Amino acid sequence: MKILIINGPNLNMLGLREPGIYGSRSFDDFLVELRKNYKQVDIIYHQSNSEGAIIDIIQQFGLECDGIIINAGAYTHTSVAIADALRSVSSPAVEVHLSNVFTRESYRHHSFLSPVVNGIIGGFGLDSYRLALEALLNIL
Ligand code: DQA
Question: Best of 47, 76, 96, 114 to mutate for ligand 1, by most ligand atoms within 8 A of CB?
Fold first, then answer.
């Protein structure tokens, strides 16, 4: 089982960035634990701050993996191109957010990705990614 996790812009700053909203743990640290707890899953991880690179990652790995977990960060709210890239691969996908975007600014309430993914998980900090993984494993 191969699952691709994609993090978008500024998520490389997790642990340092607005810890009151996003927590004080780095994604790399969390990923070590996730991989340890899901040894049966081959977790491929990529992060990029640029929209085109995220699209390249989806195109490169999206066809060979069994599922995609994506937190596109602010591109969630702006990117038709990332939504189109997700549409072009057949693997099921889950949109993830650390924060509950609906309790935040109204410009975070719209997602271009939500209509093209199987489901959305947000508001549980880093645990949102584990919940997304569980959800994918249940449907695969
Ligand atoms: C985020 C929410 C987005 O609105 C924001 O731009 C992010 C992180 C989240 O995980 O809560 O960068 O996707």
Answer: 76
Residue spans per domain, the chain: 2-139
Digit-coded pLDDT (tens) for 66-97:
999 999 999 999 999 999 999 999 899 999 99
Q: Is 45 a catalytic residue?
A: no
Alpha-helical runs (H) found in the chain:
19-22, 27-37, 51-61, 80-88, 127-139
Cβ contacts of residue 11 below 8 Å, gap of 6+?
Answer: 27, 47, 71, 73
Q: What is the CA(43)–ligand 1 centre distance, in A?
A: 21
Q: Is the pTM of this model over 0.85?
A: yes
Determine the CATH number of domain 2-139. 3.40.50.9100
